[in-house]
Amino acid sequence: MDDHRANTLDKPTRAGLILLAVVQGIALLALHLAIEHEHWLAADQRWLKALYTVAIALPAFYLIGMERLRDRLNFLPLLLAPLLFWLGWHLGWVEQTPEQQQWVRHPFTFAFCVSLGVALFILALFFRSSATSRTWPTAYSPLLNYSWEFTQTLSLLTLFIGVFWGLLLLGATLFSAIGVSFFETLFSDPVFIYPVTWLVIGLTLVMIRNRFRLIQSVRQMSEALIKALLPLVALIILLFFAMLLFTGVQPVWDTGRASSILMALMLALLLFFNAVFHQAHGLPPYPTWLRRIILLAVVLLPVGSVLAAWALWLRIDQYGLSLDRLWAVLLQVLTAAFTVSYSLLLLWRRQAALPSLQRANVGLALLVAVVLIVVNTPLADMRHWVAEQQIKRLLDGRTTAEAFDVNYLRYQLGQPGTLALQALVESEFAQSQPELARRIELSLRQTERWSQEPLVDTQNLADVAQQFRASPNGATLPEPLLNLLVEQNSACLSQTEPCQTLQISSGTPFQWLVYEPYSAVGKAYGERNGDWLLLGHLMLLGATQPQDDPTCQTTLTMNDLERLTGPADIYRNGNCLYNLQPTIENVRQQLSAQGGKISGE
To answer: Is the pTM of this model over 0.90?
Structure first.
């Protein structure tokens, strides 16, 4: 390692970092109390996410990137504040719902934090290097050194905070065991948690950064371990490519997982390669034959990029774009930028390729940071692209109206998906598809994904009947059964997709099976003495032969069930066996009809 920096922070910088950490803790406490006391900030996700983004990201950037407190360059990151506010504002707009619930779980915050965190980590490397060298960083070695320092500092900081709070909670539990609950109450109070935690973060950060030689020692140990693992990763990738010559690529498509595993190994090879081959001059630390094996694996990495892209394209062509697949596309494009660059430079420059690779790393790192920031802005919101593509597939016939996933756009794409559905329901296409238009209207009417509030007028049985898709064709649910389902507040009434119902034609005690969403258990309804009753739940037992079990798990129940003789309530449909588990009300009625008496009543 060629790092000869000073070993300590000056006193003003130490004090500034600790003060900045405490201020960040107080800012986060204020936002927490705003949510707790239902301030207007908590109701408007745009303001809340914008302020959270600035309060977390900007101080964190300074805490790991600031070299000296008295440095004019420290004013430069303040330009990030409006950008961070804008990014958070857009995230809040995407996640905004008509009736925002306290501490609601959002699907986009995690991806936002990871992508923005990686981008700011890269920018902090350039800022720290600029603050040290007083020039824009063009050399690769300082950036690599700082990346190691940042990673190890954050790891040690996380470990220390975890141990610190673990000891506090153990102590609080110990005192609580002898009747002293003061500490348990104190340690659970946000007024204590935020200031104390961030004060400890500031003190710990200063302590870690003042012990730079310790970080160098940990880096040397990590590099030694990576040096041992790099040939293994290279060998696995080369053997995989070699086996494809005999097996073909079809197994990669069949598993659906091989391409993801290959991408993970490729990223590991790139990281390990950079960690070991970081010296531009001198021979890398391997024998010639082993070094050639590693370089060959790196040169062939574009093959892996092509295979992963091919597998992903097959999925997109078959099922269309989804947000997860579009993130996978972005990751593959960025990874391909590295793999293709490395392969071309190694083939072109040969022995002199390492300096060129390091210069390429500097440019590619900035590219990654810029792309990860841009995709979190309205300029390149992937949710908007996915919504447009899903609707385009519907309009051109590649997706049928019955298969169109209304709930995916409504709940997995945030506001862009909601706006796309609003535009679709007003289009001529939706007017020509009344069932699709109804599903969209019901979805837009929901305020929560899993709300149990009926979406239809329960006084209008015609509306209620539309929540059920009866089989066989032409069958209709009787009005008394619809009234019973309304009385029971069936989950089918609060769903945008109609529930599957089956009219049983054979001589069973029940006449209808109702399958609620995401359930493989049928609710069995039957008429007894002029009244409709939920008799029990029909559950799949398996097949008559063990080898047919998978087939029965994917086969819908038919209406010609046959009851098997015997004490158990077992039914057969072809090779599939079902068991009817009665409800307690059904059993009580049977006992009452027999003149029996229920014990304990």
So the answer is: no
